[in-house]
Amino acid sequence: MSDQKRLFLVDAYALIFRGYYAFIKNPRINSKGEDTSAIMGFMNSLLDVIKRERPDHLAVCFDKGGSADRVEMFEAYKANRDETPEGIKTAVPYIYEILKAMHIPIMVKEGYEADDVIGTLAKKAEKEGYQTFMVTPDKDFAQLVSENIFMYRPMFGGGYETWGIPEVQKKFEVTDPLQVIDYLGMMGDASDNIPGLPGVGPKTAKKFIAAYGSMEGLLANTHELKGKMKEKVEANGELGLLSKQLATIMLDVPVDFNEKDFEMSEPDIPKVTEIFQGLEFRRLIDNFLKTFSTEISTTQSAPKTATTKADVKTTPKEEKSAGEGQFSLFGASPSDSVQTETTSEYTRKTIDTTSHFYQSIAPGMATTLFVKNLLNQSSVCFDTETTGLNPLTAELVGIAFSWEAGKGFYIPFPQDKEDAQNLIEILRPFFENESIEKIGQNLKYDIKVLAKYNVDVKGKLFDTMLAHYLINPDMRHSMDVLAETYLNYTPVSITELIGKKGKNQLSMRDVPLEKQTEYAVEDADITLQLKEHFTTELGEANTQKLFDDIEVPLLRVLAAMELEGINLDTNFLHSLSADLEKDIATLEAKIYEAAGEEFNIASPKQLGIILFEKLNLVDKPKKTKTGQYKTGEDILSYLAKDHEIIRHIIEYRGLAKLKSTYVDALPLQVEEATGRVHTDYMQTVAATGRLSSNNPNLQNIPIRTERGRQVRKAFIPRNEDYTLLAADYSQIELRIIAALSQEETMIEAFKNGEDIHASTASKVFGVPISEVTRAQRSNAKTVNFGIIYGVSAFGLSNQTDLSRGEAKELIDTYYETYPKLKAYMSEQVDFARDHGYVKTVLDRRRYLKDINSANAIVRGAAERNAVNAPIQGSAADIIKIAMINIYNKLSHGNFKTKMLLQVHDELVFDVYKPELEAMKTLIKTEMENAFVMDVPLDVEVGIGADWLEAH
Length: 951
Description:
By secondary structure, this protein is α/β, with parallel strands linked by helices. Among the domains are: 6-172 and 250-262, 3-Layer(aba) Sandwich (Rossmann fold); 357-541, Ribonuclease H-like superfamily/Ribonuclease H (Nucleotidyltransferase, domain 5); 567-677, Taq DNA Polymerase, Chain T, domain 4 (Up-down Bundle); 737-874, Orthogonal Bundle (DNA polymerase, domain 1). A six-stranded mixed β-sheet has the order 3-2-1-4-5-6. Strands 7-10-9-8-11-12 form a six-stranded mixed β-sheet. The radius of gyration is 32 Å and the shape is globular.
């Protein structure tokens, strides 16, 4: 078995699509504006397979022209597929060119799918004594698995798993992999538009196969079925057999398996390098050269793939000598600059393959000496380990420290609270030393945990999560992702220590000290290394000042706000819940009456049938890919003007969501220890720079409806000595766009304190401002705000009583009235096309990967973002400056007033009544002077016994 030859067949498009979507939140755009995500993703996967498995024979298989036979059998086969993303279309020619330069055979046959090409080659190779590994995540290939044919599946998060017969049997609950065809035929496949048997899903398909063995067996025994299932299966037997045929991978494609043609051979290294350089793949060049370096240890092997089949070879073969000519890696060294590597360095590094010194510090003299050494450092990374994720309730289990790459220390904490506090006192001089820089990943959490122990973390801060957010806002910012992306290192997973979520999950306190030490110090060590990497990239992205002056100082502000929390009137919410229950019941009755029957209003399927079949509200209603009627908000809002039942349904949905999401949920989120609600502000979610609020989300409480506004009434001061103050920027986004565009007419209106919407209406409709009607002002207001978001005539028509023609005329007139605004918008789009990003007043960047797309719809969305992002992002920057300045004034002035909430353009404060007049002045002044533009900022301040009254 160990000498058996191995063939790897790569499902090209499966890996290309997978690679493309792996980068979807962080697309790779080069300086020419090319989206290279799909190429990079595919090549990373291909090189990974080569490094891990060192295959004897390899080919990459493509589709070409789809499956002529299947389309002939069933015209709608794959007809529902979305158009291939442009980033993939443009990638394929490059991938062809790279594969040719690597001398890897490309297998493709006009009129056949890659599945069929792979299936045919796998069976032919099997007859020649080969083990074949089909490199694909596509479950359909499971039908081909045999004693010598395996699926080699990329796994989410990295690595691969091998499916042999036992894995297929377990996964699909079949006795023979061929029964996978019956399984697919019974349940159908929405992605390929294979219909299947109506009403049969995965569970039912497995049940039928267990009972009858096959599709034919099921159809021969339909007399044993009952009710509607019997009717459906009998009525759709032919459809089931057709579905099975469509799901069957063809094994007779006219392609030959000539083993010599599939041998791994030496790539044209200069040519591949030249292509990669043109695509600006710096790291991929290094990866490629290392992959094909000759100086490889022949005694080490790559990590085993995940498989349970003992006799399946999942580790690379030992390298043959250069004289044997079989993947030695090809004679001479590709480059004198390629360093000696070991095979273990070809895969991601881990704690097991990396030299490191991590030490736990014993209590007593060892801790004293450690702290003395700690205080001599200028910059230290620290990471807290706690009993849970909620910083308000979590207790310290230990703290890790690192100030030199590959080295670090861990101080475990005693469970006894008094002993833990005594240990904190020993460490306090470090945390409160202002001359030592503190580094961390998501430092806000650590600051909040330490605040429970009355420790104030002082000195300069460097948060790697925040740094990366500014460098690459569209990518994820977790430490694991950052370590793998920038350091090629996979950290120990927390689940390896404490298990997955559930009742059997351990506390970190239950983990042995040695494992605690390795895990915690690794985090500190990796974060320290990331800091060194990001320090350079912050400068290259021109975001160092934004990091130092805004995001890091804001971190402390948000920590203080979150620790403070806000008081909640739970009795009022219980009363409001009862009122909503009655309102919802009344609406239900109205909807049932209009429908002529009762049904589940919350079920999109049942609702669609009522609206579009029974009531026939639309001639040609839109459907989802699964054939269900679309009943989303966009569809219903369009119909609301003409149909009362739709208006009732929209109101019903709004009240039901309000009740479940806020009215009933908020009382459950009151923290027992404080009796208050503590939201968590995320700095690294919105690419525009806006903060997002979680657990609970206080930024999406509806304020346009009476019931929605009432929720704000539940937020109250801490006690009778305090009152709530709400300070709200007035029309800040319009003021920003006026200033940035230098539109004098609009600037003057703001400077003169005019009602900007009335002023706009006056100019657009050509009437004196005193004669502007309510409808004209309303339409002007819709256009004013809509312009920022790229409103179309169609969109404006939907939002107003204007016809589409009238809406178009209004927009055209608006641009004629404000020509500099129109010019500014065009300039922003041009800048984005040239640079790939736009920026705010503080140089925050929003990257726009699709700005040069050939797809008009995709490009249009990017163009709207090019206009909107600098406006929305600048507003976010400005309120952040105000928050920092106000927080500093409150802290330095020893005021009792506290800042509690930030909701978009509004700040909410718990004001100590004797400080009220001073606070009105301080808050308004700081907010209005946070950033100076040609248009003055205006802040409206309200006071009240609850948030609604204050707002």
